[in-house]
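Hey, resending since the last one bounced:
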Amino acid sequence: MLFSEIIGQQAAKERLLRSVSDGRISHAQLFLGPQGSGSLALAVAYAQFISCSNKQPADSCGTCSSCIKYNKLIHPDLHFVYPVALSKDVRVSTDVAVKWRESFLDNPYLTLFSWFESLDAENKQAVIGVEESGEILRKLSLTTYEAEYKIMIIWQADKMNQASANKLLKILEEPPDKTLFLLVCESEDQLLRTIVSRTQLIKIPRLSDPDLAKALVERHDMSPELAEKTAHLADGNYAEALMLVSENENAAQNLASFQKLMRASLKFNPQAVLAWIDEVSAAGRERQKNFISYSLHIIRESLVLNYGDPSLVKLGADEQDFVKKFAPFIHEENIEKFTEELNKAYYHMERNANAKILFMDLAFKFNEFLNIPKGELVKK
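The structure tokens again:
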């Protein structure tokens, strides 16, 4: 992965290049950036640049033996850890290494959702287990084969369970000589504070609309007008932009599911609610979490439509048609309630809550929230 292949993020690239040229490479770094910002791609490009035997002023050469192996993710001194769906046959990352290489090389901006779809494991919890920590310690105890550094990239590091994270604390503080840890994470809050304190923070911001639009024009042959609109809708998330470009079926499914839930909850139709719960519970856990995030997005955009500039609303055509009718039900008296309950639902879903109970509870609460009259707080 070359720095030149990464969309935007010029400030982050310059900082990483400078750390190498100045000889100030921290042994443990945390690449913290939102989904679709390119944080994983940056970590891989940084690792490739460090290992490149013919470094250019602003990038790897791309042609030396090390770069050729990096381009295929088969360099012997590059190691990856990522969430897996634990099973009898899958205990650690290397058990699905071939699928990982295929997924990353196909899309370096892959999301946890798309990764688990490729594993056909949407109904499993994403986790980096304690056995993975033992595997990390084993790999890093080996001497380097070709490069100056052994590099361990831990993607979605916040998915380490507590036992796994605790086991890594000592090696993060006192790693073997010439060993680098590059942790990639979207949510710092989910990481142990003791791990965060042992890393150098590299903040990766959302992509700017101009950088994202430029990439869509160059990589997907879009017109500048359509690229600008898509970049605006994607809100700095290249993964979201790709979904919009390909008219991902998941977005249409989420909209249809959200419509069914709101219609069934408004006057609380028990048969419709139960039918909806059976439908959504049959989906995998990652898809259920994706639906909850989508619901938060629709509710936020509904409030923006009510009280803000309509040009700020970031929705597709079908979504806009629905939100114009739905927006009057979202106002200052219930927006916090919706947001709080959906965030709680996401939190509990990550912790393996029973999907049917969780979604039934949401339906009951949505019935209450949707029927709160606008202006009720003002009257009180």
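The chain has a mean pLDDT of 88.

Sorry for the duplicate.
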